[in-house]
Design a protein that fits this description.
- With 468 residues, this protein is of the alpha/beta class.
- The protein has three domains: 114 residues, no CATH class; 253 residues, NagB/RpiA/CoA transferase-like (Rossmann fold, 3-Layer(aba) Sandwich), CATH 3.40.50; 52 residues, no CATH class.
- The strands form two sheets. It has a six-stranded parallel sheet, sandwiched between helices. Strands 8-5-6-9 form a four-stranded mixed sheet.
- Strand 5 and strand 6 form a beta hairpin.
- Helix 2 runs antiparallel to helix 12, helix 9 packs across helix 10 and helix 16 packs parallel to helix 20.
- The radius of gyration is 26 Å and the shape is elongated.
- It binds iron/sulfur cluster.
- The site of iron/sulfur cluster has 14 residues, from helix 14.
């Protein structure tokens, strides 16, 4: 029976075997590294900025009760409605209710990974609403009926040729591989959708408690149109998105742009503080803010890994991760891929089914080093492994490590096993179909390092004329 772990294994095996795909992803990211490093140099003290960001998030996450209430009070004063969603189902139901009560027919969305987390599009479409993604990358993967490949670059796995083919098939456009022309084709469709939409759904990068505002940062301007043209704006956010003060954005906005996309600043940074106010010429008539828990409070209760709630979803840890770069975003089978996804998915969706993600790591620590808010990612992966082993011990591992421990505690046994290893090593390729078959998972793609013809112990004894 297929499980999350076996799906991960088969998909990652498939993607890793595709050298062309891996080269394409790595080429795509090479420009990012250069720009990110150039922009990091614009910070007077990048490491100091990381320290400050981590402290600010620590303060926010450890006082969510205070800051979320402050945020709610301020934004409610200006007419927004705040809904506290304990789980995905409650969030979906609330948004559906708002849509039905207001006779909504067409919905436009800007980029929001939180909506992927709660499978919002499926729920809306099932109820007969037309839902259109307005972020170009999201629109492309929506046309392909796929999930986003990456937190920040949803369509990074596709070539221009593939996008052109898709547009020809789905939109009847001319073939082109010019990025500007491809963008204009999508834009033409989108403009109509903005005007037709009754409801705009957005994500949120940060919620500011002090002023009761949400901040959305984007490069295409589509979120501005999504949130201001339709008569209803629904902003969806995880409860961890709150920051204490407005001035915190002066750090987090450039930091998110630099770490996430190698930019000095993202092109459009907009604050939303409620629906259209009396006397204002534009803006939505209603604004709804959905604060999603969905097991985040369980992560909050885990003092060891609580700092993972500080994630600003910049995607930097994915970009540097040797596993992500080889297995790609779809192997993970969950909304949040890469190192942060491997850390938080067992909390959000259950350790038993998702602990395997934490084993897919080289523990090189590149993710921790790249993270702008200093989340201790690779140690959290180790903690998940430990928790997984405690939660549902693997009998084969128990036997293997028990045997290893027995052998390491008895030098004579260790030497005997090493001798056996030398004798039987040439037979490793015959393991297929024998009781050693499970080893094929390892030996199928790599060779054991050859054992030296003589052990250090034997060599030492020989050099000393038989003396120990
Ligand atoms: S864990 Fe850190 S690097 Fe990874 S997405 Fe979150 S903030 Fe960015």
């Amino acid at each position: 029976m297929a499980t999350q772990a076996s799906d991960f294994q088969s998909l990652s095996r498939r993607y890793t075997a595709d050298k062309g795909f891996r080269a394409f992803i790595q080429k795509g990211l090479s420009g990012y590294y250069k720009k990110r490093d150039e922009n990091k140099a614009n910070f007077q003290d990048w490491q100091g900025a990381r320290d400050l960001a981590a402290e600010t998030k620590y303060e926010a996450v450890n006082h969510l009760d205070k800051y979320l209430l402050e945020f709610e009070e301020k934004i409610t004063e200006r007419g927004a409605k705040v809904f506290w969603a304990p789980n995905a189902e409650a969030a979906r139901e609330y948004i559906l209710k708002v849509a039905k009560e207001n006779g909504v027919r067409s919905i436009i969305k800007s980029k929001t990974m939180t909506s992927e987390e709660i499978h919002l599009n499926d729920a809306l479409e099932k109820e007969g609403f037309g839902v259109f993604e307005s972020d170009l990358g999201e629109y492309i993967v929506q046309l392909r009926k796929e999930a986003p490949f990456h937190l920040v670059f949803p369509a990074m796995h596709l070539t221009r040729g593939q996008i052109s083919d898709l547009f020809q098939k789905e939109l009847g456009s001319e073939a082109t591989d010019e990025p500007e022309k491809l963008t204009m084709i999508a834009r033409e469709v989108m403009r109509r959708k903005y005007c037709e939409a009754d409801m705009g759904i957005s994500g949120t990068n940060f919620a500011v408690a002090e002023t009761g505002m949400i901040s959305i940062t984007e490069n295409e301007g589509n979120a501005r149109l999504t949130t201001s043209l339709p008569k209803i704006h629904v902003a969806l956010l995880g409860i961890e998105k709150v920051l204490p003060k407005l001035e915190d954005l002066s750090l987090f906005l450039p930091m998110l742009a630099t770490a996430g996309a190698g930019q000095t600043m993202t092109c459009y940074n907009t604050m939303y503080a409620g629906p259209r106010q009396p006397g204002e010429p534009d803006g939505p008539e209603q604004m709804h803010v959905v604060l999603l828990d969905n097991r985040r409070t369980e992560l909050l209760a885990d003092a060891e890994q609580r700092d993972a709630l500080g994630c600003i979803r910049c995607g930097a840890c994915l970009n540097v991760c040797p596993i992500f770069k080889n297995v790609g975003g779809y192997s993970y089978g969950t909304t949040y891929g890469g190192p942060i996804g491997s850390v938080i998915t067992p909390h959000l969706r259950g350790l038993k089914d998702w602990k395997h993600l934490s084993a897919a790591s080289s523990l090189c620590g590149a993710c921790t080093e790249a993270c702008p808010v200093k989340i201790d990612l690779h140690h959290h992966l180790l903690q998940n492994r430990r928790n997984g082993a405690k939660d549902s011990p693997n009998p084969a591992e128990k036997v293997a490590f028990g045997g290893f421990s027995l052998m390491m505690g008895r030098p004579a046994l260790y030497r005997f096993a090493a001798r056996l290893g030398r004798i039987f090593q040439p037979l490793q390729t015959l393991a297929n179909g024998t009781i050693l078959d499970p080893l094929r998972a390892w030996t199928g793609t790599r060779k054991f390092p050859a054992l030296a013809p003589k052990s250090f112990h034997d060599q030492w004894k020989k050099d000393r004329g038989g003396r120990k």
